């Protein structure tokens, strides 16, 4: 592998509704994104959010038993956030919505020069499902993540939608479609490039 300079890290927040150890199409595509990022010198890991007690709310810490603060530590330590969600009833999952609501608290967290702590971080979207809706969901994720300070790279998303009215899951495919592989490779390359640029020279002070 070529020398990409300083190491970058990525975190996939997998927002499947299925707790571990159930197989997950969302987790599978999220792992493919991590594998693609690894070719650009980015190491990473996944957190299956539903396995944790993430309380409803828009604060950094919603009190005793809330496990979001420990997940947030991993988010803030990573250079790239990958938000991965299944499609349910044409929308992102309720778990993904919970994550977005908890990230809202970042609007109040700034450095000494008035910049959000997320300003140096890149985010990409991953969507899977058996019906159309990936573009709609990706648009929602882009807006929400950008609003709370993340930077979205060019073509910073990948997705797979199965044929309408059928029941095939992404995790059951013998091989990933070429179009999805291509989108994953592009999102990973652009995210790593952008994260490296932001690490070298961040946004100006407010």
UniProtKB/TrEMBL annotation:
Q: Indicate the segments forming the NADPH-dependent FMN reductase-like domain, all copies.
A: 20-153
User: What GO terms are given for molecular function?
Assistant: oxidoreductase activity
Q: Which InterPro entries match?
A: Flavoprotein-like_sf, FMN_Rdtase-like_dom
Q: Which Pfam families match?
A: FMN_red
- Extract the Gene3D superfamilies matched here: 3.40.50.360
Please report the name of this protein according to its UniProt entry.
Flavodoxin
Q: Which organism is it from?
A: Ornithinimicrobium tianjinense
């Amino acid at each position: 592998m070529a020398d990409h300079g300083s190491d970058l890290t990525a975190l996939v927040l997998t927002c499947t509704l299925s707790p571990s150890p159930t197989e997950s199409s969302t987790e599978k595509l999220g792992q493919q994104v991590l594998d693609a990022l690894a070719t650009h010198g980015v190491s990473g890991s996944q957190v299956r959010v539903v396995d944790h007690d993430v309380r409803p709310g828009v604060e950094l810490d919603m009190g005793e038993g809330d496990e979001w603060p420990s997940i947030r530590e991993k988010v803030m330590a990573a250079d790239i956030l990958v938000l991965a969600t299944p499609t349910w009833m044409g929308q992102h999952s309720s778990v993904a919505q919970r994550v977005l609501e908890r990230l809202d608290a970042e609007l109040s967290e700034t450095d000494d020069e008035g910049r959000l702590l997320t300003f140096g971080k890149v985010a990409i979207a991953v969507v899977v499902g058996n019906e159309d809706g990936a573009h709609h969901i990706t648009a929602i994720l882009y807006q929400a993540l950008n609003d709370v300070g993340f930077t979205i790279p060019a073509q910073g998303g990948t997705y797979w939608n199965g044929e309408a009215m059928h029941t095939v899951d992404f995790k059951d495919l013998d091989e990933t479609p070429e179009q999805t592989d291509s989108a994953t490779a592009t999102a990973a390359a652009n995210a790593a490039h952008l994260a490296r640029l932001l690490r070298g020279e961040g946004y100006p002070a407010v």
